[in-house]
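Title: [Solved] TetR-family transcriptional regulator 3D structure

Original question kept below for reference.
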Amino acid sequence: MITSPSSVRRSERSRRAILQSALDLCTERGYGHVTIEAIAARAGVSKKTIYRWWPSKGAVLLEAFSDALIDATPFVDTGDIGADLRAHVAGAVKLLSVPPFGPAYAGILSELHHDDLLARRLREELVDPRVEEAIGRLRSAQEQGQIPPGADLPLAVEMLYGPVYYRHVLRKPVQDEETIATLVNHVLRSLRAPGY
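Solution (posted by the thread starter after getting help):
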């Protein structure tokens, strides 16, 4: 079946309306009170349309969150790994600290324990690609001589993200600029990066 340009536009418009409706409802009602029925009604689509693209509300909100996270936390390379990591982590902290994204992600994480499909999608669609991008940025710094050869880059990524998600999941106060700088410095020092 050939898809016409107008149907592609309609599909993308519907997809965007669904994602935005899910986020809006999450802000208004809280993750636990969002339903596929409510998302469909708010977006002006049928439940069948939603289920054609996503298996659950968690999957809808995961896609909405992933889109926002990628936009808010790019992996830039200015030539200064410390500055780049501070900017990257600050973007993630900021996104997680405001509705609807913080509550949406907390809700998604709470569902992982009883939704194996959502857990797999989270790893495959969000976590694994972002970890690979982070490792790629650290590898670039390694090639520039800012991180020594042989440093454990995957572990460094876990050390960077771990405190951010620990605070988010336990609803502790978010890191400020100074705390983020300290975190980045500790991680780079653990890699024995020059100047840290």
